[in-house]
Amino acid sequence: MKSNRTIAQVKRHAKIRRIAVKVILGIVIYSIALLYFFPILYMFLSAFKTEFQAVYPSLVFDPTLATMQRVLTNPRIIRALQNSLFHVVVGTSLALLLGVPAAFQLAFGQFRKKTTNEKLFVWFLV
User: Fold this and answer.
1) Its pTM surpasses 0.85
2) Is 60 found in the same domain as 1?
3) pLDDT in tens, 13-37
4) CA 80 to CA 73: how far, in whole Å?
5) Looking at the structure, do residues 50 and 100 belong to the same domain, yes or no?
6) Domain match, 60 and 103 both
7) In this structure, are 85 and 125 located in the same domain?
8) Considering 65, 96, 117, which residue would you say is the last residue of a domain?
9) What angle do CA 69, 70, 76 make, to 5 degrees?
10) pLDDT tens digits, residue range 100-110?
11) Pairwise CA distance, residues 51 & 70, whole Å
12) Helical residues (DSSP H) of the chain, grouped into ranges
């Protein structure tokens, strides 16, 4: 059975279908992204609530910086933040110190002329 549709109609139908698939896929992706982002947004907004408002949440609240002031003036929390920052800086520095030479060797090195020990050392760095 032959179709009475012209080539232009088939192309137009295919284009409309591609656009519809892109729109539906975009809606699904944005919905999933919003689903993952909502807890982060909720925690950020909870930082500006009083303890009572955080325990008994409501959609409308008066934002305050009192909790932030109390937390950021606590010497134990300041010390913990300093420790975290130190570990981040040292860990990142070590990763770069070992990773960049290994990446350079893997990208530009000639493995055929290397001994087995040298090859193993480079792969150990990776």
Assistant:
1) no
2) yes
3) 999 999 999 999 999 999 999 999 9
4) 12
5) no
6) no
7) yes
8) 65
9) 115
10) 887 887 778 77
11) 12
12) 7-46, 51-55, 66-72, 75-108, 116-125
Check whether residue 108 and residue 49 sit in a common domain: no
Q: How long is the chain?
A: 126
Query: In Å, what is the CA distance from 68 to each residue of 61, 62, 72, 85?
Result: 16, 14, 6, 19
Q: What percent of the chain has pLDDT over 70?
A: 92
Q: Where do we find the tokens 């009192």?
A: 66
Domain with 36 in it: 1-65
pLDDT at 1 over 60: no
What does the pLDDT read at residue 77? 93
Query: Longest C-alpha distance within the chain, in Å?
Result: 82
- Shared domain check, 60 and 3: yes
The first and second tokens of residue 36, run together, are 């993952």
